[in-house]
What we know:
The complex is a heterodimer. By secondary structure, chain A is an alpha+beta fold. In chain A, 34% of the residues lie in helices and 26% in strands. Chain A has one domain (7-81, 98-475): Alpha-Beta Complex (tRNA-splicing ligase RtcB), CATH 3.90.1860. In chain A, strands 7, 8, 9, 11, 15, 16, 18 and 19 form an 8-stranded mixed β-sheet that branches. In chain A, strands 1-2-3-4-5-13-12 form a 7-stranded mixed β-sheet, with helices on both faces. The longest helix of chain A has 35 residues, at 276-310. The mean pLDDT of chain A is 95. In chain B, strands 1, 2, 6, 7 and 8 form a 5-stranded antiparallel β-sheet that branches. Chain B has a single domain, classed as Archease, Possible Chaperone, Chain: A, domain 1, CATH 3.55.10.10. Chain B has 2 helices and 8 strands, in the order E-E-H-E-H-E-E-E-E-E.
Amino acid sequence: MDISGLEKLSEYCWRLPPTHGMNAPVILYADRSLLEAMDEQVLVQSTNVARLPGIVGASYTMPDGHWGYGFPIGGVAAFDAAAGGVVSAGGVGFDISCGVRTLRLGVSEARVAARADELADALFAAIPAGVGSTGALRLGEAQMDDMLQGGARWAVEQGYGEAADLTFIEEGGCMPDADAGQVSHRAKRRQRDEMGTLGSGNHYLEVQRVAEVLDAEAASAFGLAAGDAVMSIHCGSRGLGHQIGTEYLREMAEAARAFGIALPERELACAPIDSDVGRRYLGAMAAGVNCALANRQIVTHLARHALSEVLPGAEAALLYDVSHNTCKLETHRVEGAERRLHVHRKGATRAFPPGHPDLPEAYRGVGQPVLIGGTMGTESYVLAGCEGVMERSFGSACHGAGRRMSRRQANRQWGGTDIVAELHARGIEIRGHSRRGIAEEAPGAYKDVRGVVEAAEAAGLARRVARLEPMICIKG
Amino acid sequence: MSGSWSHFDHGADIGIEGRGRTLEEAFEEAALALTAVGVSPDAVPAERQMGFSCSAPDRELLLVDWLNEVIYAMSTEGLLFGRYEVRISDDTLTARGWGAEVARVSERPAVEVKGATMTGLQVRREGRQWIARCVVDV
């Protein structure tokens, strides 16, 4: 990215002043090297978002920002319905509420390492993953609607996990404004066989060791200590979310014109929050979030079962569950006044600060856990929301490493190598259905996650709590 | 010269492109590029046939709708397609696809396509060729 047009506010905060039809500035949180490595399109897309009606504050880009569709991935933008603000299906994405949850296994890394091969096989057998995989659960129409209204709460009622899990999921595991009636028959049909499945691409289930504690107080609050084993699950709303995104993107592409919204590109398809299509999308999107929360809850249940077979006594208590692709109605203080805003986070994590009332009591003193997925060969991080993050980015932080290389380039570079054997030699067990899929997800295809989380910390978004290293990775 | 398909780079996702002597052939090739995101189209036996139809106010949205129809069939029927035949009349597309269930294909798909986006979306004529392209989310 050419940064010559940006104002440097600090080493980790850069600003593009509003010009040429922009309704707000662009703020990018990253150091110079991360910015210069970003695609030119990141700034183009962030600028386009700043042109949308009713945007409040700024169009923000997180340190892992990369070229998306419509919004950049790592893009955050808030809109005020009362000021003509919009909701954008492209600002949420196809994989609604794709997210990560991390569980404390209650056993040492040494105990996992001693049975790693067996545990990898058990998890791979227990959790449907990859293209065309189906779950054991088939939902009828009424059950599907109950799931879409109830989210992880519904899953717990059906026997998938425990009520205590819900405390550690955003919104207590259930988006309150979900409207299953706004989800099409086709979207529900697409989900029929996919409950409790991991998906493919960058989705994974990983068993990790806590390699390093970087913030003792927050780590203690999160129940993490060096040498512990944890499990992280990255997946989303599966076919249902993809279909909701497909249908509303298409509808909004035409609706925007009817509302007189000039779109810099079609993919920014949006509609006023306070419009029929805007309200319908928000109801359907919230139902999509609930589908993702229920899905992760079912996958957790399957993983717990496999874990208990191999490591009796392991508990897998939920540390936290974060969603990446969402639009949520939240209260924020802007220029001294409280406002209700629709905050889009596209490939970005909510990162509420210490003291925020929406946090579980156990974490209120240290801030929201922010779970950052790295790669299957490097490291991941647990962060915590910083003081001041509400003012800096509407309580948002990065979500992962971000790709350095396209899938095509990665396959060209690693398609002929045995990544599974290479990682096995380093003590990391990989299981996956597609050799090419694994090559496309090669560790070298991603940016250095360490630089991303250091930038998030230095920018005052989220601070590092613990560094995790992979032991087992089940690839979708 | 007959049609051809290719992929182009996009940061997180994949760009697909079809080229052909006619608009229909470019759309067929674009759908083959979609299959090729997961597996080689040549690896897909023609064991099942499916019909498709969609309408859109312009050619670009018609391409997005066409690809999304194929993605929906892949997702709900568990199918992959190795050959397509497309007809376009005014704003309406009708098509047939030949393929097989995922389990019947020798390769395991690398990745699932979630949807066709309007990023990089182009349907245009270049000399004697039609080009149909967009980014798909994976």
